[in-house]
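Kindly review this record before class:
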Amino acid sequence: MSGGSDRGAGLLERTIFSFDTETTGLDPIEDRIVQIGGVFLRRGELVGPRRSSLVNPGVPIPPDVTAIHGITDADVADAESFAAVGPRFVEFLLHAPDGEEPILCGYNAPGFDVPFINAELGSDPRKARDSDRGERGGARGSVICPGAPDSITV
């Protein structure tokens, strides 16, 4: 019965990139990212810089969505588009401070954040939902960074 706990113990020694997005809605095909951010963690401690960017979605943010995350059209009016922000964000996550390939982690990342990021990067947002979540030992909600600059997958 040591298999699961041994694997978990090894994860504690890995660098984790915890990330989150805020959006204009719930549909990665129709809606857009308005904020993206992430931090590197190791053994529960922050390592390296934090990254957070407001993103101009190019469409109005519905008032009911602003009520959830607090981001308004005025907040993103002068922000860059995801076309500018996204590649820098992916480049950031690919370069953990220790040079190790990080484990990507986010609450409901495979079902929400990853499809949105992939849609914004021009990839099919359904890839994240259709892939084998257990392929590389990641728990549901965790993804492994494949090193591809045009998408992230679970």
About this structure: Helices lie at 3-12, 63-69, 73-76, 82-93, 109-120, 126-130. The beta strands are 15-23, 33-42, 45-54, 103-105, 142-144. The two ends are 26 Å apart (CA to CA).
